[in-house]
Amino acid sequence: MTQSTLHHPLTIRPGTDADVPTMARIMSEVQPAHPWTPETLAYELKVLREHPRQPHDAHWIAEQDGEAVAVASVLQFPGMFHPDRYHAELMVRPAARGHGVGTRLAAVLEEHLRARGAQEVLAGAYENQPEALDFLTRRGFTEAMRYYDNVLDLSHFDPASWEGHGVLPEGVRLVSLAALEQELGQEAARRAFHAGFAEAREDVPRTGEASPLTFEDFQKRFDSPLVFSQGILLAVTDAGEVVGLSELWRAEADPARLNTGLTGTRRAWRRRGLALALKLAAIGVAREAGAREVWTGNATTNAPMLALNDRLGFRPRPAFIEFRWGGV
Question: What keywords were assigned to this record (predicted)?
């Protein structure tokens, strides 16, 4: 695209499911550290729309000369749900910036949010995107929380230096979800996993209270095209209780990268070395799988996990800053 095309009229229309490939492409271009495939985006939207809380989602495409130059969305996320809280996303292709495309799309989002009576809106950008940060600030958003991308280059990880570390407490063993499903059956293994996961996630730093996670909702995670059950590691007691966990998920469009989901322990089992043992085991699985990197995301307020990741060799990338307008 040349800059001259940006003088042609801009049209903004509602997005449809047919636009998912276009949305995934623009989202990946704007945030290359977290690319999307059409399959993963379609799956995430399907899960959102099937959720019993009936969260809202709406999307728009900005086009110039028949070419999509920006996308925008208004969403409600079931995991941190309030009927008057919304998440807004607006992404303009680099070649189309500086010509008012974002301003036009923002006006559409603001009108939509006003019509729905939104009391709180969350949006964000990376700290190395000053134009986006200024765009939000000028619209009355203020910083709410920061999250680091922490990345471990597995070529620099020396497993020999960690021999003797990560010893599990007596009466606890480490097993993958895939192996536990073979032992107990799929539903029993997943119910045990859900119980530990649901408690651990309640204490993950976020900008709002975590919504309860039912087993039925939890089950849908395993339909994701990115699931990697051998990389979901569980600390299980002799009584069959999952007291700690660390997840690895496949990365969109990058077979040499694995993403960490939740790493956490149940409250009664914290400060007993479970997190270190689980992270070391996950790194071992990643190396065996031939991964080049392991990525994880941590709130900058989560000092214990940041310290653990730093010990293991994870290094921070630019932080994602979540902004808030209003409040519920």
Answer: Acyltransferase, Transferase
